[in-house]
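hey can u check if this looks right to u? its 217 residues, i copy pasted from the old doc so theres a chance i mangled smth
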Amino acid sequence: MTGEESRDQDQDRAPIQVVVVDKNPLLLSGLRQIFDADPRFSLVATATDGERFLAAVDRLRFDVGVIGWEMPYLGGQAVLSALRNRPNAPRIVVYTGRFDAALPRLVMALGGAGFCLKSDPPARLLDTVASVAAGNMVFPFVDLRRLMDNPLMSLTARERELLEALSSGRTNAQLAQVMGVSINTIKFHLRNLYDKLSVRNRAQAVALHLSDDGSAP
């Protein structure tokens, strides 16, 4: 196939439907211009926080979401956890300025499809989104041995939510109220949580969570 034929085929394909999220309005405007200028993509919506992005997932059909990691209301971890077991969820690329060697492992473990730093050239983000839309996973080197060794990676989204709530110092009664369940249900989830983390009490569970920086294996 010649290069010209390949370009013709790219033009014949439907554009990749993308939704972009960033808390910085100036950067969001720049991302809009970058995606609008590339015929491979159709930017269907933008959002400034994780809650608005999940609302877009509910009302729109699109291929790839480009989200930040540290976002208002719901961060990248919470968004990925919410979408993890959701059928027909868009593929997610995390686009962040946070340079942390462990973060790509967490994004992969939570079901993300790609990872890109804001310090990378814009063309790398565009190519990452295109590759993810084609069904690929695009990450920097990830040490999968460390991914499997981390007990926090075995937690369900509900158990992660409970662990984060424990770190706030809430009592069992307060946890039950916040999560909309009975105290007995909270106790049941706590037993499962302690078993998975191989700890004996909430203090040890919170200490493990905090030693992991709350986000990275």
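The chain is about 50% helix and 10% strand.
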